[in-house]
């Protein structure tokens, strides 16, 4: 497919909860035209058609694959369908933005990476939090050594649903945190250990507690759950000089704390204990309110047009899936630490996108 003409033609497969957002952000880009929306539900087709005039709707993704005018395909369907749909699109010579997780097995991820390389097209994985400006600032703080040596990090991602049927909470929720920490520390983890429980559906863990070890003895703890009473997206990162917190749902999501006073003061009453305050400076970086999904869409277009490098290529998606596989293996082994295989150099590097 040619990506040199003025408009880039995009099709979106999957119009449930998330796909319509892709249609919205891509339609807002002046150089992009959304031509197709695919969903098996006729009600969702009618809904999309009512919002976006000129977008053709269908329940058959083969119509998209056969349309030579389509340059790129966005896949926002259940995880178990990612491999087949992405493989068909890549083999049809179309650039692909696939929602996370890229696939449910590392072998499937490797097949997609190979297919993208053979077709010379872009494969970008929708790890949208790598386009969150708070997460980007976290990476800058680490790279600039503003926190000193990173010691450990703790992350919590909970919500009351939605409950997935084809993947557990590790694949659905922890994939976000793994992609974030791989991005922050510029490396996949070395080992994983985890415990989890399937309270609602047998064999599908809806709550998982994870420990990851990264190079330089960085320890990471992750809690994910579909059963939380409230929506939480938080990370605390502690370094030798400073600590930083990121709360994606707060008006000011990022706060950087200096080391502060290490010794605990004396207090003579419960009231004094309750009112104890931390001594030390707190910096609240100002972040522009730019939608991460829109930044991801712009990046996808720029990568296709060779104006940017791919920050979420198939290898990053593979590293995340391999980590989740290790997490699931640890749960099967009762929480025993599991080594995470490093990315295999045997996979060919992709050709430049056409």
Provide an overview of this structure.
Helices cover 32% and strands 26% of the residues. The chain has a nine-stranded mixed sheet with strand order 14-13-12-11-7-10-9-8-15. The protein has a six-stranded parallel sheet with strand order 3-2-1-4-5-6, with helices on both faces. The chain starts with 7 loop residues before the first strand and ends in a 15-residue tail after the last strand. It has 354 residues and is an alpha/beta fold. The protein contains ten helices and 15 strands.
Short characterization:
The protein is 32% helix and 26% strand. The chain is built from 10 helices and 15 strands. The protein has a 9-stranded mixed beta sheet with strand order 14-13-12-11-7-10-9-8-15.
Name the descriptors.
354 residues; alpha/beta; Rossmann fold; Dihydrodipicolinate Reductase, domain 2; 2 domains; nine-stranded mixed beta sheet; six-stranded parallel beta sheet; 32% helix
């Amino acid at each position: 497919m040619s990506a040199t003409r003025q408009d880039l033609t995009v099709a979106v497969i999957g119009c449930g909860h998330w796909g319509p957002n892709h249609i919205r952000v891509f339609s807002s880009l002046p150089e992009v035209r959304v031509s197709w929306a695919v969903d098996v539900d006729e009600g969702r087709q009618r809904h999309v058609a009512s919002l976006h005039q000129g977008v053709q709707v269908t329940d058959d993704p083969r119509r998209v694959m056969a349309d030579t005018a389509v340059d790129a395909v966005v896949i926002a369907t259940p995880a178990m369908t990612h491999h087949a749909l992405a493989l068909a699109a890549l083999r049809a010579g179309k650039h692909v933005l696939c929602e996370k997780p890229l696939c449910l097995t590392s072998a499937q991820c490797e097949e997609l990476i190979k297919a993208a390389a053979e077709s010379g097209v872009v494969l970008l994985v929708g790890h949208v939090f790598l386009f969150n400006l708070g997460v980007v600032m976290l990476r800058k703080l680490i790279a600039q050594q503003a926190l000193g040596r990173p010691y450990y990090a703790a992350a919590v991602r909970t919500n009351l649903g939605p409950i997935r049927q084809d993947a557990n909470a590790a694949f659905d929720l922890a994939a976000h945190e793994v992609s974030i920490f791989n991005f922050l520390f510029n490396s996949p983890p070395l080992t994983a250990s985890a415990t989890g429980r399937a309270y609602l559906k047998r064999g599908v863990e809806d709550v998982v507690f994870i420990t990851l070890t990264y190079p330089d003895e960085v320890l990471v703890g992750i809690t994910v759950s579909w059963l939380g009473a409230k929506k939480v997206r938080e990370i605390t990162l502690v370094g030798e000089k400073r600590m930083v917190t990121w709360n994606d749902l707060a008006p000011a999501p990022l706060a950087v704390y200096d080391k502060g006073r290490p010794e605990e003061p004396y207090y003579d009453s419960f009231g004094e204990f309750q009112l104890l305050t931390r001594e030390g400076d707190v910096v609240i970086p100002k972040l522009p309110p730019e939608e991460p999904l829109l930044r991801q869409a712009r990046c996808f277009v720029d990568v296709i047009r060779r104006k940017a490098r791919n920050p979420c290529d198939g290898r990053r998606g593979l590293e995340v899936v391999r980590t989740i596989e290790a997490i699931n293996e640890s749960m099967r082994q009762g929480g025993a630490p599991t080594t995470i295989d490093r990315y295999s150099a045997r996979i060919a590097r992709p050709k430049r996108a056409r």
